[in-house]
Amino acid sequence: MGFAVLALLAASLVAGCGPLRRFAYAGPGRDGWQQPDRVVASLGLEPGARVADLGAGGGYFTWRLADAVGPEGQVFAVDVDVEMLAHLAEQSREQGDANVETVLGEYDDPLIPEGGVDWIFTCNTYHHIEQRTAYFSNARRYLRPGGRVAIVEFNGQGWFERWFVHYVPADEIRAEMRAAGYVELASHDYLDRQSFLVFGLAD
Ligand SMILES: C[S@@+](CC[C@H](N)C(=O)[O-])C[C@H]1O[C@@H](n2cnc3c(N)ncnc32)[C@H](O)[C@@H]1O
């Protein structure tokens, strides 16, 4: 891909062009390195589960999570970007996905609706969150008993995320989540460009 295209994508991420941002999030060839079906399968979601897709963006994982939990389940597509959420809501209506609900979160609080969730899933969003320990400490109240947090995050192996510092090393995530009151339950190592960690509540 030419430098001009990459520069355009980078600028769109910063400047706020919705369609280009969605294209950049999906990225050319993402399905290959992202292995989305394997990621969702690794969660072992029960039909009927309630899941928050934190930082849902263009919905790359939202629809796959919705398929996994089925019509009895519920996926809350949480984001702070109104334009992205409007696009998701429209797509959800068009596709007839009654089990997807968009949620406008705040930068320091996902505002997950009453009833909570069995899973908070977040992909390529962890590095966007400020005060992460406080954020996930607060997020504990949205987890139902036995609830889990799955974090898929760039690990700095790809030049793009390293160049734009769009990543948090896995050990930093571990330390922050421990401080927020979680224990590590699983670490999947099949993604080249990302860590994939699963946490549960420490108490
Ligand atoms: C790089 S995109 C990832 C989108 C999607 N998860 C994916 O894997 O394609 C990051 C998303 O996180 C959102 N975001 C940033 N800070 C956030 C916060 N504090 N709470 C919720 N979403 C946030 C952005 O608006 C953006 O849509």
What topology does this entry show?
Elements: H1 3-15, H2 18-26, H3 30-34, H4 36-43, E1 50-54, H5 62-69, E2 74-79, H6 82-95, E3 100-104, E4 117-123, H7 132-139, E5 143-154, H8 159-163, H9 170-179, E6 182-188, E7 194-201
Parallel strand pairs: 1-2, 1-4, 2-3, 4-5
Antiparallel strand pairs: 5-7, 6-7
The structure holds S-adenosylmethionine.
Structure description:
The protein has helices at residues 3-15, 18-26, 30-34, 36-43, 62-69, 82-95, 132-139, 159-163, 170-179; strands spanning 50-54, 74-79, 100-104, 117-123, 143-154, 182-188, 194-201. It is α/β, with parallel strands linked by helices and 203 residues long. It has a single domain, classed as Rossmann fold, CATH 3.40.50. β6 and β7 (194-201) form a beta hairpin. α1 packs across α2. The longest helix has 14 residues, at 82-95. 37% of the residues are buried. S-adenosylmethionine (SAM) binds at residues 25, 54-58, 60-61, 78-81, 84, 105, 107, 123-125, 128-129.
- Please compute the radius of gyration using only Cα atoms: 16 Å
Number of domains: 1
CATH homologous superfamily heading? Vaccinia Virus protein VP39
Tertiary shape: globular
End-to-end span in angstroms? 48 Å
- Which regions are unreliable across 5 or more consecutive residues at pLDDT < 50? 1-5
Q: Could you please say which CATH topology applies here? A: Rossmann fold
